Amino acid sequence: MNIKSYILILFGLCYQLAISQNTQDQKSLVLQTTDTVFVAGTFVSLNFTNSENFTPSLYLTNSFGTTIIDPTRVQKYLFYTIPTNIANKRGRVNWSLIHNKKVIQQGKVDIISDDIVSKIETYVGPPSVQAGGIDFAMSVMIPIDTLDNPVMDNSKVTFKKQFLAKEDTVQLVVKDLLSYETIYSPLKTGRFLISSKCNNKQSTEHTLNVWASLPSNFTITAESNHNYADGNQICTLKTSVIKDAFGNLVTDGTAVSIIIEDKNGDILSANCNTINGVGQTKFVHPDHEQQWKIKAFVYGMAESTPITLSFQQVITDFDVVFSENNREITVGPLRSFMEQMIPDGLRVELEIGEEGATHKYMISTSNDGYVKFILDPENYKNQIYNFKITTAEISKIFKNKSVW
Amino acid sequence: MKKQTNKYLIVALLFGLLFHGTAIFFTLEKTYDALIHLFFAEHYSTSWFEPWNYKWYTGFTVMSYPPLVHQFIGLFSFVAGLKFGLFVVAFIAIILFITGSYRFSLLITASRKAAGYAAILAVFSSTFIETLHLFGQLPSIIGASLLMHSMPEIYLWLKTGKYKYLVSSLALMAVMVCSHHVTPIFGMVFFIFPLIGLAILDTAKDQVGSFEKVTFRLFLQTLFKLFRRILSFGLSSLFLIVFCILPYWINTKNNPITQIPIPHGSRDNFLEVTSSGLVFFLIPWGILLAILPYVFYRYYSKRYICFGISITVLTILGTGGTTPIPKLFLGENAFNILTLDRFTLWASLMSMPLFGEFSYRLAEGDLKELMQNKFGAVYHRLFGALLVSFYIFMAIFTLNMGYFRPSQPQKIKTLPIVNFLNQDQHDKWRYLTLGFGDQMAWLGANTKALSVDGNYHSARRLPELTTRAIERLENSKFKGIEGLGSLQQFLTVPEKYNLKYIFSNDKFYDPILYFCGWQRLQQLENGIMVWEKLNVPPIASILQQDEIATFQKVMWGLIPVSTVLIVLLVNLRMIWRRTLKTKIAEIPNYQNYEIEYLKFPSIIIKIIHVWIAFLILCASYGFYLFYVKNISHQSPENIVKAYYNALDFKEYEKAHSLVDPNNKIKIAQFMLELSVRDGILGSYAKLDSIAVSISYKNDSTAHARVYTEWITPLEKLSRKTDHDLVAHGKKWFVKLKKTDSDLPPNQLYVSNSTQYFNHGRRKITTEQTHHEDVLKRPVLEILSSKLVKFNNSYALIGEVQNIDNVPADVILKGTLYNDDNLELATYNCKHSTKHKLMPKEITSFKINFEGIAWSKTKDSIPKTFNPDEFTPIELSHQPTKFNLQAIGSVTTTNLYKNTVVNQLKVRENDVSGFLFNNGIQEVTIPQLLISYYNENRDIIWVDHLFLEEGVRQERKRYFNYTLKDFAILETINTSMENCFVNGFPNATIASAVVPDRIQKHGTQKLQSIQNNMACYIKVEINNFIGNPK
């Protein structure tokens, strides 16, 4: 044998010695506890006998964390009391005995939950769904014991829900810590009340609102005191009761856009919000003969049939009086349909033209049927002007008026 | 010789403590700075060694201000609270100032009587009163007082070379440095250098017997003789200045002041800005102005020549921007950083001894004799009485300046705000105050909640603030449009700063808050309105801070207080002896130079008379100008300006008195007609400038064209208004304009509306969000969106719809990317959208990408900045893609939609029409959102228009809008693949909720226009209600 072999043998012997020391340690320790399953919250202790005089530590690990504990020694007995933060949690606990930085024995125990259910943790979400049978919510129920551990799989959970006149009961079982039920939206609006029960323990009440589905087409009506274009009275536009495809009233507050196209193709618009399915808005009458084509929209979803509204011209003619060196122009009387003075606020526009200059405009509103324009000498020098006076879409032209 | 206590000094101290001690409780808390010092003091009282403060500016270090005064307030606060600490320190400052004035005067005049007079005069000196009762600059006062205390010690060291004087002078320097860093630095130049000159001259005089014989050569020789002492003092004090507040200097070096200088009144031209002239020149000088010739005469005598030069420089520097000299002398940079009023302060302090001397001579010395001989005893008495009465007038006027021109809003009770922040974990977010003045510092000291704003501008850190000349967001309205621009950035992207609550003490900011998507939460019992923004995440529990070395923290915590202990220790024996006269103290060397006041030069008395006459003349002319400017009826210009000013300040009675009496309008009717004009111009505008041009005028009538500029929270408005004016006799009046006579048809009408309430928390629990009470986020759908480039800036435009069944608050956040998916910019939608949508409602939107304004160069700051404009972001790459996040939260307020477009007409590029309000709320500011569409009815641009006047119930409001010109509108990307709603892809969520959408439904009916790119427009209305009923 050469020197190499000696060295090898020497190493081998050392190794053997170490191993045998280890196995000797292992052999000297005997697990006395026979149970491997404990109920959470009970006293859990791992007991060993040790013929030798060393004290290994117990390394414990479960899904919540890891700790290391030392035993109490009574003669040759070693008592390892599992701390409550591990013994109270459902799940597997892996243990290893460690001595001189070496694992000399290992094993596992299982902590199971208590059968007594203390509470059913319930989650319902989302808290509202849209009617129509497509949208859905889910209720998740987790019965737990007094130590907050989910109960064992296959525990029975009774799921109850009430909607309108109907109450349903469904039997569920706990699987992978929880039980759940999918709740599809019904065709009607309303509210689900949801509860559950497990081992004689009831959950609290939970709510799931069912909102209306998308609106469907509707009609629109107009109401007015008269149909004269006096620029003052108010015309009310109202939708019919807007419902969804299943006959539910759309939610209060649903925005309806009302669009009016007048005879010139100009667009007037309003936004209104429904109450009990009816949207309503108000417009002021135009101040001249007009036709309104009215249509309402819930954009992207529904629209009304169009209606047409006509307004009759009330002002057919008016007088214009020039005074104060033609610097004061009085328009009126402006008369309404019963020859009464038009209500205050009718707009009258005066267009002032002069040779080689851009036209100037003055706008005023009527007061007791009259409108007065004053041409100040600073802006309007003494010269000849053309005037055009327009109100209620009627224009009167006065050419070559000299102002001084 | 038995030394007696100076009776004048005793009198001065008694008067000083009584006078200031009484007044201080009414003034100090209303000063500009006192509450800021309190805030710092609160910091030290809670964390002595930790210099980082999170409460302001998203965190700053208190090492940016010398700590001594704050630390002492903090220490005293342990006895009976912060304010107790403040007042105790103020009392100390008063005592130090009076005794300091006495000692300095004694040094200069060498006469105990003159110094006694000076001490009494110092008590009521307007510069001291202003600094203490108006500015509240305690550190500055204490610094200056200590400087005056240290001067005799320095003099004695130079003169006698006794080391005890060196030690005591250095100890005083150390305390001075720790209380106010600027004082020793400038004090060195303006006080101690002349003092060295004085000491040299005195030593030289001792050699040759009289000042006349002192030659320049002898002066130099003496200088070299004393050089060792001068140098040892100079170097040691330099060392102290650096060492005692070393962390301050390190911090200054690490965070150099790269901010835009903040305009300060002391740099104004005092002749132009007379208010600055009053506060920064006239008041600090006060009565001293009258005897200025005497001060100069004395300081230019041979002994004081160095002081003469110093006071000349100080006087000139103190004139600010009135003459170009200070700017040339200091250089552009220093001129813009320094507040120049401190030079006037020092000049007036320097004049104090001579004022004492003058008064002594006038009251019982040679001047009295001279005047009595020359002008008679009565004149002398009158002259004295005049001086005294003017002196008293200045003191009382200065003390009560805050009463005449309140510098602060009314006192706000902070307790309700503190309670609000403590309640319901509101302090997990940052807050902002608006319109609080310096009281925000007091709120900051009282709450543990954090603010984005702050009140110590040197510590500003966010570039949004440092790039602009605004001290704080809180008073941004006074910083004009620049301030409002800065504020808007914070309001638009509040989640960047975790800013959720705004406490508003000023209605002015309401519109900007509303249009940036904020909502009113509640009014607190102290009248403060709380605004909140939905969907802002709380502050992270661990905040970033600049790490500061432990040695610095220890130095900062220990050195300042130790310096005071050392001073007390060094001087204890001396103070004991001096005050209790236990041992006859040696007479200080400087008292050997007392001159006998024998012959007051009569030329000086003549000069003083001429000078006073000149001053009176100037003052009278000033008053005359003031009077002429302010008599309203005097000229057509005056009447128009007075009318506008009266309306701006809501002095309706005055405005009514300016209206042509022939109009026969009673004040009630006048006010009624005004109240009708609610709106941005009527209720939220501040008159910025007014120019009147009288285009026509004869004896009885005139026509005025008035050009006005108004600052509103939303945009800057320029108006041109014509007014007819009429004269009755010599008095001019404004002719009233005709009001809109529109008459609503209904007297009483009924309106139903949908209203909402959200409980927030149904269960009373401290759980952050009890899961049963969490509402579902409203589902939105982005109907269209595209990235466009218009006028060289990029914008995201599009339309979004609330497809849920509950009202939604909508936040739209856009991000731009280049081809390599590099993020270039991100911003939120500001006010080009309706932030609150009813179920199924649509809004157009536009997101502008704003950069941090003017961060590039300070030169590019536009002189006339419009808050509605913005600084387009500087993009490093070409953006080609975008990401759009729409986030909905359930909202219950700001849902008024009852305004309709009742008439619309397009005439070439002009859209006109009127709105009609058919509901029961008065719309204060209507905003029109105008969306442009191309021939395929695809959206291409979104614009907005704020109407200047509101729409009352059942009334019309005419509007006029000029169409945009789209010659250079470029569409860059129309892909909607990166659009998300509440974090989910827009396409999937949309197809799940509205599977059978009617395409292009919203664009079926559009107003057609003639424009080079756009064929149609749509007009939407967003209503701001100022006073919800």
Structural overview:
The complex is a heterodimer of chains A (404) and B (1029). With 404 residues, chain A is mainly beta. Chain A has helices at residues 3-28, 84-87, and strands at 29-31, 37-39, 45-50, 57-62, 65-69, 72-74, 77-81, 91-99, 102-112, 119-125, 128-130, 136-144, 156-163, 166-173, 179-184, 190-198, 201-202, 206-211, 220-224, 228-229, 234-239, 255-261, 267-273, 280-284, 290-298, 302-303, 307-313, 320-323, 328-331, 347-353, 360-365, 371-374, 383-391, 394-403. Chain A has four domains: 3-112, Sandwich (Immunoglobulin-like), CATH 2.60.40.2840; 119-211, Sandwich (Immunoglobulin-like); 220-313, Immunoglobulins (Immunoglobulin-like), CATH 2.60.40.10; 320-403, Immunoglobulin-like. Chain A is built from two helices and 34 strands. In chain A, strands 11, 13, 14, 16, 17 and 18 form a six-stranded mixed β-sheet that branches. The N and C termini of chain A lie far apart (143 Å). The mean pLDDT of chain A is 89. Chain B is built from 31 helices and 28 strands. In chain B, the strands form seven sheets. In chain B, strands 14, 15, 16, 18, 25 and 26 form a six-stranded mixed β-sheet that branches. Chain B is globular. Chain B starts with 6 loop residues before the first helix and ends in a 5-residue tail after the last strand. Chain B has four domains: 7-30 and 65-406 and 560-599, no CATH class; 415-532; 631-734, Nuclear Transport Factor 2, Chain: A, CATH 3.10.450.50; 776-1024, no CATH class. Chain B has 1029 residues and is of the alpha+beta class. Chains A and B meet through β22, β23, β24 and β25 of A and β19, β27 and β28 of B.
